[in-house]
Design a protein that fits this description.
By secondary structure, this protein is α+β, with helices and mostly antiparallel strands. Helices cover 36% and strands 29% of the residues. It has nine helices and ten strands. It has helices at 13-19, 33-37, 60-63, 74-84, 96-103, 105-115, 131-142, 150-159, 212-227; strands spanning 3-7, 25-29, 42-49, 54-58, 67-68, 128-129, 161-164, 168-179, 182-193, 196-207.
């Protein structure tokens, strides 16, 4: 297992803003790369250990690079819709485009600017965001630190839960989009064990005809198991 600990005197600009802590240690874990390579994928992984204020990252350059948000923005849009009363409940099923039309362009842009979501350019296929920004967003959602009603944030959090048992809670949203003749996939969520929370983000690219839903689930379980989760010891 190859890991490199980088001692950084200043925080990543985006992570510092979103996570609100001074980043002293970032562990670059190249051993995580095998889970992408085994599937013929190029990707990145980032996790924040909230109790220690430490990051574990694979493929740092990609982690700081912007990619189209696509339907990974659904989480953000639902927060806006529930907070503003455009959507009565976070459990209502609605398409992504229909949801944004329901909110309205001006209202959506206002909240994109307020939260500083990605590059803030709300226009079809032009809104981009980096994995580190996505990590900050999901961390702030978990702790209800976003500028939305607490009840709206709590409701959206519950919709992301995949598994919840005595040992751990695993929650995430997975999406993909076609961009430049390839698929860009996002997995954004957290795992909680022993009352410690670890927000994480996976971003990768795959062939345009690839089935990414099951691949995203596999990557999530494989990488988290590799780090040491699902045993009740983290």
């Amino acid at each position: 297992m190859r890991k490199t600990i980088l001692h950084i005197s200043i925080a990543f600009s985006i992570l510092f803003f979103y996570v609100s802590c001074t980043v002293n240690n970032v562990t670059i874990d190249d051993s995580i790369g095998k889970y992408f390579k085994q599937k013929g994928l190029t990707g990145t992984f980032g996790m924040f250990d909230n109790s220690r204020g430490e990051f574990t990252i694979y493929a740092l350059d990609r982690f700081k690079t912007n990619f189209p948000a696509g339907q990974s923005m659904m989480l953000f849009s639902k927060l806006v819709a529930v907070h503003t009363g455009k959507l009565a409940s976070d459990t209502i099923q609605i398409g992504f485009d229909s949801l944004n039309q329901l909110i309205g362009k001006d209202t959506l842009q206002y909240w994109i600017d307020s939260v500083k979501y990605g590059n803030k350019k709300w226009k079809k296929d032009s809104l981009t965001i980096s994995p580190d920004e996505q990590l900050g967003l999901i961390k702030r959602l978990y702790f209800k630190q976003l500028p939305f009603r607490g009840s709206a944030q709590e409701g959206i959090k519950k919709t992301l839960i995949i598994e919840n048992n005595a040992q751990y809670q695993l929650a995430y949203q997975k999406n993909d989009l076609v961009y430049n003749n390839k698929k860009i996939a996002w997995v954004i969520g957290w795992i909680e064990e022993n009352r410690h929370v670890y927000p994480f983000v996976i971003n990768y690219e795959a062939p345009v005809d690839a089935e990414t839903s099951s691949t995203s689930d596999q990557l999530c379980k494989e990488i988290l198991t590799h780090i040491g989760f699902f045993k009740g010891i983290m």
